[in-house]
Protein backbone atom coordinates (compact mmCIF):
# COMPACT_ATOMS: atom_id res chain seq x y z
CA UNK A 1 0.00 0.00 0.00
CA UNK A 2 2.75 2.42 0.94
CA UNK A 3 4.59 1.59 -2.29
CA UNK A 4 1.48 2.48 -4.29
CA UNK A 5 1.28 5.82 -2.49
CA UNK A 6 4.99 6.67 -2.79
CA UNK A 7 5.26 5.71 -6.47
CA UNK A 8 3.22 8.68 -7.85
CA UNK A 9 4.96 11.01 -5.41
CA UNK A 10 8.38 9.93 -6.70
CA UNK A 11 7.16 10.22 -10.27
CA UNK A 12 5.87 13.75 -9.65
CA UNK A 13 9.14 14.82 -8.01
CA UNK A 14 11.18 13.38 -10.87
CA UNK A 15 8.87 15.02 -13.39
CA UNK A 16 9.23 18.41 -11.68
CA UNK A 17 13.00 17.99 -11.50
CA UNK A 18 13.12 17.14 -15.20
CA UNK A 19 11.05 20.19 -16.08
CA UNK A 20 13.31 22.38 -13.95
CA UNK A 21 16.45 21.01 -15.60
CA UNK A 22 14.95 21.46 -19.06
CA UNK A 23 13.87 25.03 -18.36
CA UNK A 24 17.30 25.88 -16.90
CA UNK A 25 18.99 24.35 -19.93
CA UNK A 26 16.94 26.39 -22.39
CA UNK A 27 17.40 29.54 -20.30
CA UNK A 28 21.18 29.18 -20.16
CA UNK A 29 21.37 28.21 -23.83
CA UNK A 30 19.34 31.25 -24.87
CA UNK A 31 21.50 33.50 -22.70
CA UNK A 32 24.66 32.07 -24.23
CA UNK A 33 23.35 32.61 -27.78
CA UNK A 34 22.25 36.18 -27.05
CA UNK A 35 25.51 37.16 -25.33
CA UNK A 36 27.55 35.61 -28.16
CA UNK A 37 25.53 37.61 -30.69
CA UNK A 38 26.11 40.78 -28.66
CA UNK A 39 29.85 40.09 -28.72
CA UNK A 40 29.74 40.32 -32.51
CA UNK A 41 27.29 43.20 -32.75
CA UNK A 42 28.76 45.49 -30.10
CA UNK A 43 30.63 48.52 -31.45
CA UNK A 44 32.62 49.09 -28.27
CA UNK A 45 35.38 46.46 -27.82
CA UNK A 46 35.23 46.76 -24.02
CA UNK A 47 31.52 45.92 -24.10
CA UNK A 48 32.34 42.96 -26.35
CA UNK A 49 34.71 41.61 -23.70
CA UNK A 50 32.01 41.95 -21.04
CA UNK A 51 29.52 40.09 -23.23
CA UNK A 52 32.18 37.41 -23.76
CA UNK A 53 32.47 36.99 -19.99
CA UNK A 54 28.68 36.62 -19.85
CA UNK A 55 28.89 33.92 -22.54
CA UNK A 56 31.45 32.01 -20.47
CA UNK A 57 29.21 32.25 -17.41
CA UNK A 58 26.28 30.73 -19.28
CA UNK A 59 28.53 27.99 -20.67
CA UNK A 60 29.77 27.13 -17.17
CA UNK A 61 26.15 26.90 -16.01
CA UNK A 62 25.43 24.43 -18.82
CA UNK A 63 28.42 22.34 -17.74
CA UNK A 64 27.09 22.27 -14.17
CA UNK A 65 23.73 21.03 -15.47
CA UNK A 66 25.53 18.25 -17.34
CA UNK A 67 27.27 17.16 -14.14
CA UNK A 68 30.74 18.37 -15.19
CA UNK A 69 31.56 20.53 -12.19
CA UNK A 70 35.32 20.33 -12.77
CA UNK A 71 35.02 21.68 -16.31
CA UNK A 72 32.68 24.43 -15.13
CA UNK A 73 35.19 25.51 -12.48
CA UNK A 74 38.01 25.28 -15.03
CA UNK A 75 36.03 27.48 -17.43
CA UNK A 76 35.46 30.07 -14.72
CA UNK A 77 39.08 30.13 -13.57
CA UNK A 78 40.84 30.02 -16.93
CA UNK A 79 38.56 31.80 -19.38
CA UNK A 80 36.99 34.39 -17.09
CA UNK A 81 39.74 34.76 -14.51
CA UNK A 82 42.64 34.91 -16.96
CA UNK A 83 41.75 35.20 -20.64
CA UNK A 84 38.84 37.64 -20.37
CA UNK A 85 40.81 39.96 -18.09
CA UNK A 86 43.76 39.75 -20.47
CA UNK A 87 41.47 40.60 -23.42
CA UNK A 88 40.16 43.59 -21.48
CA UNK A 89 43.63 44.93 -20.72
CA UNK A 90 44.82 44.36 -24.30
CA UNK A 91 41.80 46.18 -25.75
CA UNK A 92 42.27 49.09 -23.37
CA UNK A 93 46.01 49.32 -24.05
CA UNK A 94 45.74 49.13 -27.84
CA UNK A 95 42.97 51.76 -27.99
CA UNK A 96 41.89 50.80 -31.51
CA UNK A 97 39.56 53.40 -33.11
CA UNK A 98 35.97 52.32 -33.64
CA UNK A 99 36.11 53.26 -37.33
CA UNK A 100 38.99 50.87 -37.92
CA UNK A 101 37.14 48.08 -36.09
CA UNK A 102 34.01 48.62 -38.16
CA UNK A 103 36.07 48.60 -41.36
CA UNK A 104 37.50 45.18 -40.46
CA UNK A 105 34.09 43.81 -39.38
CA UNK A 106 32.48 44.53 -42.76
CA UNK A 107 34.63 41.94 -44.48
CA UNK A 108 34.18 39.39 -41.68
CA UNK A 109 30.38 39.19 -41.82
CA UNK A 110 30.17 37.14 -45.06
CA UNK A 111 32.78 34.68 -43.79
CA UNK A 112 31.00 34.34 -40.44
CA UNK A 113 27.67 33.81 -42.19
CA UNK A 114 29.14 31.11 -44.43
CA UNK A 115 30.67 29.30 -41.45
CA UNK A 116 27.38 29.51 -39.54
CA UNK A 117 25.39 28.08 -42.45
CA UNK A 118 27.95 25.26 -42.82
CA UNK A 119 27.69 24.46 -39.11
CA UNK A 120 23.90 24.39 -39.21
CA UNK A 121 23.87 22.14 -42.29
CA UNK A 122 26.35 19.73 -40.67
CA UNK A 123 24.32 19.58 -37.44
CA UNK A 124 21.10 18.95 -39.35
CA UNK A 125 22.86 16.23 -41.35
CA UNK A 126 24.11 14.54 -38.18
CA UNK A 127 20.65 14.60 -36.63
CA UNK A 128 19.02 13.36 -39.82
CA UNK A 129 21.48 10.54 -40.48
CA UNK A 130 24.43 9.38 -38.31
CA UNK A 131 27.95 9.42 -39.66
CA UNK A 132 28.36 5.64 -39.49
CA UNK A 133 25.47 5.04 -41.90
CA UNK A 134 25.92 8.07 -44.15
CA UNK A 135 26.45 7.15 -47.84
CA UNK A 136 28.85 10.08 -48.21
CA UNK A 137 31.20 9.05 -45.40
CA UNK A 138 31.06 5.25 -45.49
CA UNK A 139 33.01 4.83 -48.80
CA UNK A 140 35.78 7.07 -47.47
CA UNK A 141 36.68 4.95 -44.43
CA UNK A 142 38.68 2.29 -46.37
CA UNK A 143 40.49 5.04 -48.31
CA UNK A 144 41.47 6.93 -45.17
CA UNK A 145 42.50 3.88 -43.16
CA UNK A 146 44.39 2.22 -46.01
CA UNK A 147 45.82 5.35 -47.62
CA UNK A 148 49.39 6.65 -47.52
CA UNK A 149 48.90 8.05 -44.02
CA UNK A 150 47.66 4.74 -42.64
CA UNK A 151 45.33 6.38 -40.13
CA UNK A 152 43.75 4.17 -37.52
CA UNK A 153 40.83 5.19 -35.37
CA UNK A 154 40.96 3.42 -32.01
CA UNK A 155 37.66 2.40 -30.52
CA UNK A 156 37.47 3.36 -26.87
CA UNK A 157 34.86 1.98 -24.51
CA UNK A 158 34.07 5.08 -22.48
CA UNK A 159 31.76 3.20 -20.12
CA UNK A 160 34.60 0.88 -19.12
CA UNK A 161 36.97 3.84 -18.77
CA UNK A 162 34.46 5.70 -16.61
CA UNK A 163 34.15 2.73 -14.27
CA UNK A 164 37.89 2.14 -13.96
CA UNK A 165 39.23 5.72 -13.86
CA UNK A 166 38.35 9.03 -12.28
CA UNK A 167 37.10 12.08 -14.18
CA UNK A 168 40.56 13.67 -14.39
CA UNK A 169 42.11 10.40 -15.56
CA UNK A 170 39.47 10.12 -18.29
CA UNK A 171 40.27 13.68 -19.35
CA UNK A 172 43.98 12.87 -19.57
CA UNK A 173 43.37 9.71 -21.59
CA UNK A 174 41.02 11.54 -23.96
CA UNK A 175 43.32 14.53 -24.50
CA UNK A 176 46.77 12.95 -24.62
CA UNK A 177 45.80 9.53 -25.93
CA UNK A 178 42.76 9.25 -28.14
CA UNK A 179 42.43 12.86 -29.34
CA UNK A 180 46.05 13.96 -29.35
CA UNK A 181 45.71 15.22 -32.95
CA UNK A 182 42.99 17.65 -31.89
CA UNK A 183 45.20 18.82 -29.04
CA UNK A 184 48.03 19.58 -31.48
CA UNK A 185 45.59 21.43 -33.75
CA UNK A 186 44.42 23.55 -30.81
CA UNK A 187 48.05 24.36 -29.94
CA UNK A 188 48.62 25.53 -33.53
CA UNK A 189 45.57 27.80 -33.27
CA UNK A 190 46.94 29.28 -30.05
CA UNK A 191 50.27 29.86 -31.80
CA UNK A 192 48.51 31.75 -34.59
CA UNK A 193 46.67 33.86 -32.00
CA UNK A 194 49.94 34.66 -30.24
CA UNK A 195 51.59 35.72 -33.50
CA UNK A 196 48.58 37.92 -34.29
CA UNK A 197 48.79 39.60 -30.87
CA UNK A 198 52.48 40.34 -31.40
CA UNK A 199 51.75 41.75 -34.88
CA UNK A 200 49.08 44.06 -33.44
CA UNK A 201 51.41 45.51 -30.82
CA UNK A 202 54.19 46.31 -33.30
CA UNK A 203 54.30 49.98 -34.30
CA UNK A 204 54.71 50.88 -37.94
CA UNK A 205 57.67 53.08 -38.81
CA UNK A 206 56.73 56.32 -40.54
CA UNK A 207 59.04 57.14 -43.45
CA UNK A 208 59.81 60.86 -43.15
CA UNK A 209 62.58 62.82 -44.91
CA UNK A 210 65.70 63.28 -42.84
CA UNK A 211 66.63 66.79 -41.71
CA UNK A 212 70.10 68.09 -40.90
CA UNK A 213 69.57 69.82 -37.57
CA UNK A 214 73.07 71.38 -37.54
CA UNK A 215 72.56 72.91 -40.99
CA UNK A 216 69.19 74.33 -39.96
CA UNK A 217 70.58 75.91 -36.80
CA UNK A 218 73.62 77.42 -38.57
CA UNK A 219 71.57 79.31 -41.20
CA UNK A 220 71.85 83.11 -41.27
CA UNK A 221 68.22 84.08 -40.90
CA UNK A 222 68.79 87.76 -41.79
CA UNK A 223 70.29 86.70 -45.09
CA UNK A 224 67.35 84.37 -45.72
CA UNK A 225 64.86 87.17 -44.97
CA UNK A 226 66.66 89.57 -47.30
CA UNK A 227 66.67 86.98 -50.09
CA UNK A 228 62.94 86.40 -49.64
CA UNK A 229 62.27 90.14 -49.72
CA UNK A 230 64.35 90.53 -52.88
CA UNK A 231 62.48 87.67 -54.58
CA UNK A 232 59.08 89.15 -53.66
CA UNK A 233 60.13 92.61 -54.89
CA UNK A 234 61.34 91.10 -58.17
CA UNK A 235 57.99 89.34 -58.62
CA UNK A 236 56.06 92.57 -57.98
CA UNK A 237 58.09 94.52 -60.55
CA UNK A 238 57.60 91.84 -63.19
Automatic annotation (TrEMBL):
Coiled-coil residue windows: none
EC number: 7.1.1.2
Statement: the UniProt record of this protein carries the keyword S-adenosyl-L-methionine: no
This protein's record includes keyword Transport: yes
Pfam families per record: Oxidored_q3 (PF00499)
Keywords, sorted A to Z: Electron transport, Membrane, Mitochondrion, NAD, Respiratory chain, Translocase, Transmembrane, Transmembrane helix, Transport, Ubiquinone
TM helices/strands, residue ranges: 20-40, 49-68, 74-96, 108-128, 182-202
InterPro entries for this protein: NADH_UbQ/plastoQ_OxRdtase_su6, Nuo/plastoQ_OxRdtase_6_NuoJ
Annotated compartments: Mitochondrion membrane
Function: Core subunit of the mitochondrial membrane respiratory chain NADH dehydrogenase (Complex I) which catalyzes electron transfer from NADH through the respiratory chain, using ubiquinone as an electron acceptor. Essential for the catalytic activity and assembly of complex I.
Protein's name according to its UniProt entry: NADH-ubiquinone oxidoreductase chain 6
Amino acid sequence: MTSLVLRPLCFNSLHKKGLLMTSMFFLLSTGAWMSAALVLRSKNPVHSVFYLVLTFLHASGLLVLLGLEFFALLLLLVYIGALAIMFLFVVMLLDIPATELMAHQRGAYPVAGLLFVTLVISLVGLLWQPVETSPLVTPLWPVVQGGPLGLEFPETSWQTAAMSHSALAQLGVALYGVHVDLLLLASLLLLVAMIGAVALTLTRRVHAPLHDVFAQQSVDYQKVVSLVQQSTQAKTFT
